[in-house]
Amino acid sequence: MSDLERDLEQELHRVLDAVSARPIPPRRAGHAGFGWRAAIGGAGTALTIKVLTGVAVAAAAVTVAGAVTTGSLNPEVWGQQLSDRVVNCKQQIANSGQHGIGDCVSPFASQHGATVSSAARHHGSGNGDGNGNPNGNGSSNGNGNGSVNGHDKDKAKDHSPPAKNSSP
Amino acid sequence: MGGTPGAAEQPATERYEPGSDADFERLYRNTYRRILGTLVTIVRDVATAEDCAQETYERAYRGWARWRPEAPVEAWLHRIAINVAISDRRYQRLRQVGEVIKRLGRPAPGPDPAVVAERSELVEAMQKLPPKQAAALVLRHYHGYSNREIAAALGIPEQTVASRLAAARKHLQAVLGG
């Protein structure tokens, strides 16, 4: 054994024997130390926050989208009201001899559109896309599908699919 | 060699049942001091070494049910401990960068007398070695492991152990002027 190795052993024993003589602490149970360190300060937190935010946003989006799509926060109520309205309009038109129930249904759809778009704004959609035009473009096609998304027909062109790229 | 009992010198009667909580607690009591001794030479101070030791046993406990009784248990623990120490070194390096940036323009704080008391030039020099070299040194010269046992513990060829020991000794000789 070289002098260096002998000195090494002596010095290691001098220092480490003193450290090792300390009482053995109780074993730490559960996740502490690096586990918490990573969870608190590392990617764990970022991931958790992202997941929770995603869930919250998705839940809000489903609520708002459901309301906007069906025209009511309670789709059953809105659907029944609309059906009743259409039946009434058909009867009125049959009695008056007019054609098409659009003019009859449209005001109802517009009013409902305004109500729902207001509700959508209160849900904090905040996406700035102009959804929920209070004027509601109640279409006069007789189906009573009062559009509440504020997209007029010209804007609808913007939603056409992009031209297919023919290049390989 | 006057090391503390190495893996080969462990009492043959010590048998552990994988997955047994009682046996893991016994393992903890039997090995904690040696694991701590190894960690002290790799990480920056005793408090960090204690933290790393606890982390080592937490990781070991998570794999305790899968530990095979035919594998030397202390070698397995040392392997985990060295990985924990390497992770801690990386973490400390990142933290130091942050500290340096925060301290820019301010005087550095004086050394803590309690920390100075437990330091030695040799341990300080070892703490600056690559963790795997420091681990090889302490396993060889403090715990009394043979090169073959170190190779088994770290999962590396014996030749690699020899070269790590040689590099570590050379570095210490240069630093300490031995």
Descriptive account of the structure:
The complex is a heterodimer of chains A (168) and B (178). Chain A has helices spanning 3-20, 34-41, 43-70, 75-96, 102-122, 153-156, and strands at 137-138, 146-147. By secondary structure, chain A is mainly α. In chain A, strands 1-2 form a two-stranded antiparallel sheet. Helix content of chain B is 66%, strand content 0%. Chain B is built from eight helices and no strands. Chain B has helices at residues 21-40, 46-62, 73-103, 113-117, 121-127, 131-141, 147-154, 158-176. The two termini of chain B are 20 Å apart. Classes of the chains: A mainly alpha (168), B mainly alpha (178).
How are the SSEs placed, and which strands pair?
The complex is a heterodimer of chains A (168) and B (178).
Chain A lengths: L2 H18 L13 H8 L1 H28 L4 H22 L5 H21 L14 E2 L7 E2 L5 H4 L12
Antiparallel strand pairs in A: 1-2
Helix pairs in contact in A: 3-5, 4-5
Chain B lengths: L20 H20 L5 H17 L10 H31 L9 H5 L3 H7 L3 H11 L5 H8 L3 H19 L2
Helix pairs in contact in B: 1-2, 1-3, 2-3, 3-7, 5-8, 6-8, 7-8
Structure summary:
The complex is a heterodimer of chains A (168) and B (178). By secondary structure, chain A is mainly α.
Q: Distance N terminus to C terminus of chain B?
A: 20 Å
**Helical segment tally of chain A?**
6
Shape of chain A: rod-shaped
Biggest beta sheet attributes of chain A: 2 strands, antiparallel
Please tally the β strands of chain A and state the result: 2
Radius of gyration of chain B: 17 Å
Structural class of chain B: mainly alpha
Measured by residues with Cβ under 8 Å of the partner chain's Cβ, the largest interface is:
A-B, 27 and 38 residues
Quaternary organisation: heterodimer
* Backbone structural class of chain A: mainly alpha
Helix content range of the residues of chain B, please? 55-70%
The neighbouring-strand order within the major sheet of chain A is 1-2
